[in-house]
């Protein structure tokens, strides 16, 4: 343990940003963003000064994609493609619920996509269970109603349910999500499988605004290399949800840029 930036970040290959200023009832978004600007200005400067130029930076605290983008402003020598927002937690929660419903193991469920940011509804259009399309496994009318209504509700309340059942936070779930994200990034995703990561949006083929850290399905080839999964057919309903979260992230970006100018980039 150290509070010395030089020791903490010296020649780092991976940087995990676990905390942020917490959301507080009654506090405006601008107030929270300004606090996080001050925090991640300091961390971004440390990454810029001490970490390797090709280090990979994962923001895990909410709002992860905005925090990753904010930190990237203050580490301009590190490629924007090397900053990530954690959305694996929602992916894992969706996989767990689907596996339980299908009577399968979590490892049998593949290709659940999270578009946008943490807290967004999962895209199940390419999901498979033991190699079979999800809707051929969960094909009953009650299954379809659950997929449309029950699953989103269960995911939204999952963190609170864990807190109630365990009398503790869902930190272990977050830790597993972080581990899974880094594992896939460093070791690669399995053949025929993608995973969800908040990544730099420039050059994407899905019409998502550039200049954001935005969660998309990605394929990892190992040692920090990845690309956005190409050629996916995105439903109209999913596109509507993508545009809604895009609007929110653009507003966050504009506010972050305003505050970054206020506090100075140097």
Question: Would you mind describing this structure in some detail?
Answer:
Helix content is 47%, strand content 14%. It contains 9 helices and 9 strands. It has helices at 5-9, 29-50, 64-73, 88-102, 134-137, 141-156, 158-166, 171-187, 236-263, and strands spanning 14-17, 56-59, 83-85, 109-110, 128-129, 132-133, 195-200, 213-222, 225-228. The strands form 3 sheets. It has a 3-stranded parallel beta sheet with strand order 1-2-3. Strands 4-5-6 form a 3-stranded antiparallel beta sheet. It has a 3-stranded antiparallel beta sheet with strand order 7-8-9. A hairpin with a 2-residue loop joins strand 8 (213-222) and strand 9. The longest helix is centred in the C-terminal third of the chain and has 28 residues, at 236-263. The protein is globular and about 55 Å long.
